[in-house]
Design brief:
Helices cover 75% and strands 0% of the residues. It has 434 residues and is mainly alpha-helical. Helix 10 (270-298) packs across helix 12 and helix 11 (302-311) packs antiparallel against helix 12. The chain is globular. 60% of the residues are buried.
């Protein structure tokens, strides 16, 4: 769920200062990320299809491959956050994208030579995941240095919409590319997308403030501990982390079994899977576009728990899909999940950015992601094991119900008694240089 965030964001952007649509550097970052997300959505379809179709992988092997893509968050997210806070976030993002270009590009190359193996797919998934850890922590920490604090929810909504749009267009593109070039060949699009993202980041003129000098006696270990203490010691942040981590655990289960369910239970052809997943992504686009308006009408604090417990409740219908026209229940239920989680993510990420000191931003994001993304590979493995033991459909019912129930963590928190998150003070607005 997937990770994927203040008060009156759209109004603030229109009355208090320039719109994000007129901020060149943000538009460069946004456009580059849009292309990169599109490419990643293609790989999200193509990588497991290489395993399922080309290598005849078992249910457990596919679950293990899905787990490998997110395992790095559990292994290196914490030191990654401390290292990001020490250096240039922009440079880290560029290096990570260059490396991902080479890593993802190795699959179509070896496939063309007839040498692709499951072992290589596992290595690619883990190596690309390591780069994604550093990129995502740097990226989420970089946004507040580009834009004013009172525009961050607007920015997070736009970036979230991009992610959802990629889930709409990416699978459709991926399905076409898989049909035309095979699953491995389709991953070439993802490799190229990282190159586009590199050039967009290079074009950004705004420069970050240099990181604060390290205090005497401060070590990597002490910096990691400081970030963890901040997250765990915050009475609302720890509830948000518990909610997101639990939702991701069950999301990992459903994601690991989605391709198996579509191909082997519903008998959807590989070339049409992209269309099914793209239809579901419409919900994510709607969630990103409406997150700001919903936050204004319902409350920027209240929306965090309502999105989980109210908006996401009907998602369970995806597990009831059957062959023929009943397949439509899957994208409908998946789309409801995307909508609810997009609204939730925009709200909770913006909340996190509003309460975190700039010097802790990388470590906060890393600590949160270490926990909430660390449950994804566990969920994927668990989904693969349970899918083998009790069947794919029963596990999907469990996964969707568990994802909804995670919302009770944020309901039983101080957020239940708040309508809105307090607006950022002028002192919290980051200073940037050119």
């Amino acid at each position: 769920m997937t990770e994927v965030v203040k008060d009156l964001p759209d109004a603030a952007s229109e009355t208090d200062g320039p719109s994000l649509w007129r901020q060149r550097d943000f538009l460069l970052l946004w456009s580059g990320q849009t292309v990169s997300e599109m490419g990643s959505a293609v790989t999200q379809i193509a990588l497991p299809l290489v395993a399922v179709v080309a290598l005849k992988a078992s249910t457990f092997q596919v679950g293990l491959l899905t787990a490998a893509t997110t395992a790095a968050f559990a292994l290196i997210a914490l030191p990654a956050g401390a290292l990001v806070d020490r250096g240039s976030k922009r440079s880290i993002m560029i290096v990570c994208n260059v490396l991902r270009l080479l890593i993802i590009g190795s699959v179509p190359l070896t496939a063309a030579l007839g040498a692709v193996t499951m072992a290589q797919l596992y290595v690619v998934a883990v190596a690309a995941g390591v780069c994604t850890v550093f990129f995502d922590v740097a990226y989420q920490s970089y946004v507040p240095s580009l834009i004013r604090a009172d525009l961050q929810m607007d920015a997070n909504g736009k970036l979230g919409t991009t992610e959802a749009f990629a889930q709409l267009g990416g699978p459709t593109l991926g399905g076409g590319l898989v049909t035309a070039f095979g699953a491995a060949g389709a991953m070439t699009a993802d490799a190229i997308s990282y190159m586009v993202s590199v050039f967009s980041i290079l074009g950004i003129r705004t420069r970050e403030e240099p990181p604060p000098a390290r205090r005497e006696g401060e070590t990597l270990r002490s910096q990691i501990a400081e970030g963890l203490r901040f997250v765990v010691g915050h009475k609302i942040l720890r509830k948000v982390v518990a909610c997101t981590g639990t939702a991701n655990l069950f999301s990992g289960m459903s994601s690991a079994l989605a391709m198996i369910f579509l191909v082997r239970v519903l008998h959807v052809r590989p070339g049409r899977i992209g269309l099914v997943m793209a239809a579901a992504a419409v919900g994510g686009i709607a969630g990103g576009m409406l997150a700001g308006r919903l936050a204004r009408s319902i409350g920027s604090a209240r929306i965090i728990w309502m999105s989980m417990l109210v908006f996401s409740a009907p998602q369970v219908i995806a597990a009831a899909a059957w062959r023929g026209w009943g397949v439509l229940l899957f994208p409908l239920g998946w789309g409801i999940t995307y909508f609810a989680m997009m609204v939730y993510n925009v709200a909770q990420v913006s909340y996190r950015q509003s309460v975190t000191p700039p010097e802790l931003m990388g470590r906060m994001n890393a600590a949160v992601r270490w926990i909430v993304w660390g449950t994804l590979p566990l969920g994927s493995v668990l989904g693969g094991v349970l899918g083998t033991l009790i069947g794919v459909r029963p596990v999907l019912w469990l996964a969707f119900i568990g994802c909804w129930a995670a919302g009770w963590f944020v309901f039983f928190s101080p957020l239940r008694h708040m309508r809105d998150v307090p607006r950022p003070t002028p002192e919290s607005v980051p200073v940037v240089t050119r």
